[in-house]
Design brief:
Elements lengths: L3 E2 L35 H12 L8 E3 H21 L7 H14 L1 H7 L5 H9 L6 H10 L6 E8 L2 E11 L8 H4 L3 H20 L4 H19 L17 E3 H7 L5 H7 L7 E4 L2 H13 L2 H16 L5 H16 L7 H12 L1 H12 L2 H24 L5 H13 L1 E5 L17 H17 L21 E3 L4 E5 L14 H18 L20 H19 L2 E3 L2 E2 L6 H22 L12 H12 L2 E3 L1 H10 L5 H9 L3 H7 L17
Parallel strand pairs: 4-6, 7-9
Antiparallel strand pairs: 1-8, 2-12, 3-4, 5-6, 8-9, 10-11
Length: 670
């Protein structure tokens, strides 16, 4: 299971960054006061901001997350540019991050190198003489960061979360999701044609004649469609019971005898192991059939495509532009390519995350930041405990187990206690593709090397400058990086109500993930175990179905509705998180209502604090793409869906019982 994050999914080759402490929480004066908050609270809170902040041409969405990301990238750029100056006395960290950035920025050197940087890969691929050579080649490509055929990594064992096991998953696709290959509506058909045309263009850039390139593109599309046909859809993958199959190596071999797994695991550098999680056995069976029916020459074409596709961001500009044209412009609606420095900042943060992050944390986040966050986490945990104890629909037996899990939840705040050691990673000034590959190889081998080891909860899922927060059900750990611990989530100079509506709701959101439709399947130790009574599980399912139906009725564009099943976990977390954050705020006030701020009550400030987080504009293409694959609802649904279920909101704004922001069938789980 992937990490559960409050922030929206990041696009290909992009990692959200921020470290600067910027104070820009939208005050009440920016609210669209002509809109009745009881009619459309999102428009009331965000309408004026939306009108003043259109999506920039090099972006596909613009909101407070993006503002934080841009400011963070500016800070990262400053550090990288200073480190890039080749001067005596640079530290090892400065050398690595500085030379990586300087090399990425040297467009003329990249242009001179052309596609010669890929020559070794192409020679190896063309030298294969039989399909028996595929395991070794795919293992090598995986080590370089290429996502060919399937995915292989490590993760906590669902049945014994104390240990790390090998994990084999579906993969090998260029389009965002399996449904892009399988749906037969007009838009999907057109996107597939455009994707095939994109692949053709890339092969032509490699020097292939147009007719040959067109045939190669069809080969790639045929193979990827075959892989997609046996992949699980995103909604089904939300059920952890559907993505855990602990098999022996002999059982894996029986699923796909056409692929020599022992050769692959050896070439992949994996330590010896006897069993692994085969996330989707049917995908492996389908892969086996595809291996048998597809000629070696077609696999060579497919692997050649995978190599150039993975390397596109650090190839000559013609490849960068073509990659942007399809994956950013066509699929997501961007109008312009981001400036080179921004793309290199993002790449450095992605490939050298904790090295870059450590340099910035030293400058921007102190012990007081951890202390403030810990205090608020404590307040939210206390509020959630009280909420669980008071639930009328849950039995005493399940409540007891839920409280055990809650009290076992650990927190990672700000930055890692132990930083990763990059001493073994070599960064060479002048070798852009090599630097990226070596960084990805280093990180992959770090992950694969954990197989068979005890789970280390000190290992962070992403760098500390990330604008995100997450809950990991296998570890029962919440991560709050330094990047998100600032306005509009938390403003040390702001009022308590706004901070509880912002950071308090984020903390509550992540705590509630431990008890959503996925998290509730795992116990306090992170094991996949049913700790509910059967009657309580039925009650839980009825309440979550209410949210599924509510959010599934929201329109995203024209007739396109939100997927209430795909977004269920995030919607449970939003509703529970905001509710317990409000309770924690009330408890802190201890019966003493604070004076109004800017003419607004504490309750009104709280809900504006929540709404301000999600003020955003999106391109139509991104909205369609997100509706198909993203587990998070768009900002309007997150805000209006949550407040319409809360009597506290109705009281704060004195809404009539029949107002649109008062749900007539209130949905409540936590």
């Amino acid at each position: 299971m992937t990490d559960r994050r409050i922030a929206r999914s990041t696009p290909r080759r992009q990692l959200p960054l921020v470290l600067a402490l910027m104070l820009f929480l939208a005050p009440a004066g920016l609210s669209a006061q002509r809109v009745d908050p009881c009619t459309d609270f999102y428009a009331y809170a965000c309408g004026a901001w939306q009108a003043q902040h259109p999506v920039p041409p090099d972006s596909v969405a613009w909101g407070h997350f993006n503002e934080l990301q841009q400011r963070g990238e500016d800070v990262v750029r400053d550090v990288l540019e200073r480190a890039a100056v080749d001067r005596p006395g640079r530290t090892a960290t400065e050398q690595k991050i500085g030379d990586y950035y300087a090399t990425c920025m040297d467009e003329s050197a990249i242009e001179r190198a052309g596609t010669q940087t890929l020559a070794g890969d192409f020679e190896r691929i063309s030298a294969m003489r039989a399909k028996e050579d595929l395991p070794n080649e795919i293992a090598l490509l995986h080590r370089q960061g290429t996502k060919a055929l399937f995915g292989f990594s490590s993760g906590a064992d669902y049945n014994d979360a104390r240990r790390v096991i090998a994990a084999l998953d579906q993969g090998g696709l260029g389009l965002p999701d399996r449904d892009y290959y399988l749906k037969d509506d007009a838009r999907s058909l057109e996107l597939r044609l455009q994707y095939v045309d994109h692949i053709r263009r890339v092969f032509e850039l490699l020097g292939d004649a147009r007719e040959k390139a067109a045939a190669e593109a069809e080969v790639v599309m045929t193979i990827e469609t075959g892989l997609a046909a046996n992949a699980l859809d995103q909604t089904t993958r939300r059920d952890p019971r559907r993505v855990y199959h602990l098999l022996s190596l002999a059982e894996l071999a029986a699923l796909s005898p056409a692929f020599d797994w022992s050769r692959y695991f050896g070439a992949a550098g994996a330590p010896a192991f006897a069993s692994l999680n085969v996330v989707e056995p049917e995908f492996v069976r389908g892969m086996n059939r595809l291996l048998g029916s597809t000629p070696l020459a077609d696999w060579q074409t497919y692997l050649r495509w995978q190599v150039v596709h993975a390397g596109a961001p650090v190839l000559p500009l013609a490849f960068v532009n073509e990659d942007f044209r399809f994956f950013s412009a066509t699929l997501r609606g961007a109008k312009e390519l981001s400036p080179r420095w921004r793309r290199c900042v993002i790449a450095a943060a992605e490939d050298l995350g904790e090295m870059v992050g450590r340099e910035h944390v030293l400058q921007t986040f102190g012990a007081e930041g951890k202390a403030r966050t810990l205090a608020m986490v404590g307040a939210l945990e206390h509020a959630l405990a009280a909420d669980i104890e008071g639930l009328p629909w849950m039995s005493a037996e399940t409540k007891k187990a839920a409280l055990v899990k809650l009290h076992a939840t650990a927190n990672r705040i700000g930055y890692p206690d132990i930083w990763r050691d990059y001493a073994a990673l070599t960064i060479v000034r002048g070798d852009a593709l090599g630097n990226s590959r070596r960084a990805r190889t280093w990180d992959r081998q770090r992950r694969v090397g954990n197989i068979g080891q005890a789970l280390d909860k000190r290992d962070w899922p992403y760098p500390p400058m990330t604008i995100n927060a997450s809950y990991d059900p296998h570890e029962n750990v919440i991560t709050f990086p330094a990047g998100i611990l600032q306005p509009p989530f938390y403003d040390p100079r702001g009022d308590d109500a706004s901070n509880f509506g912002g950071m308090g709701a984020v903390i509550g959101h992540e705590l509630t993930h431990g008890f959503d439709d996925q998290g509730s399947r795992f116990d306090g130790d992170g094991n996949l175990r049913e700790w509910w009574t059967a009657a309580d599980r039925t009650q839980f399912a009825e309440r979550t179905r209410c949210l599924e139906d509510q959010y599934g009725s929201f329109l995203v564009l024209d007739t396109l509705k939100l997927n209430g099943k795909l977004t269920l976990g995030e919607n449970i977390a939003d509703n529970g998180g905001v509710r317990i954050a409000y309770a924690a705020m009330v408890a802190q006030f201890a019966g003493e209502e604070p004076p109004p701020v800017d003419g607004q009550t504490a309750g009104q400030r709280f809900f504006l604090g929540w709404a301000n987080i999600w003020c955003e504009n999106r391109t139509e293409a991104l909205s369609r793409r997100a509706t198909a694959i993203a587990p998070h609802a768009p900002g309007r649904a997150r805000v209006n869906g949550t407040v319409s279920n809360m009597p506290e909101f109705r009281a704060a704004y004195q809404c009539a019982a029949t107002a649109p922001m008062v749900n007539q069938n209130v949905c409540r789980v936590w």
